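Incident log, structure service

09:12 report received: a user says their structure output differs between two submissions of the same chain.
09:20 pulled the input from the user's history:
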Amino acid sequence: QVRLVESGGGLVQAGDSLVVSCAVSGHTFTRLTMGWFRQAPGKEREFVAGMSWNDGSTYYADSVKGRFTISRDNIRNTVYLQLGSLKPEDTAVYYCTATPSTYNGASMYFARWDYWGQGTQVTVSS
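09:34 re-ran on a clean worker, output below:
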């Protein structure tokens, strides 16, 4: 059974940085396309970033491009999301997601994601 466990959320001030992590078990990590979504109160869940397993390509939502970075550690079976230059509008529950399907570049925005974590809260105060 595939399990995704996020950690690292918290309360920060605008302009700060934060790293959230997602530990993966139950599947060959190197064969998983990994992604991050977020959901703010009263809003739909939205794609934030993705990283393919086959070529390491990444894709970001326009709202976070240049501020957030997705990375993965294939030894620790963990994917990270570095959140930089945080804004109050980045406040949300951040979810880790994965799929064994192959997606590259912009196709990750429309991917069908198979596995989800429970989420970690990130709150940015102004």
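09:41 both user submissions now match this output. Likely a transient worker issue. Closing.
09:42 reviewer note: The CA atoms of residues 33 and 52 lie 4 Å apart. The two ends are 40 Å apart (CA to CA).
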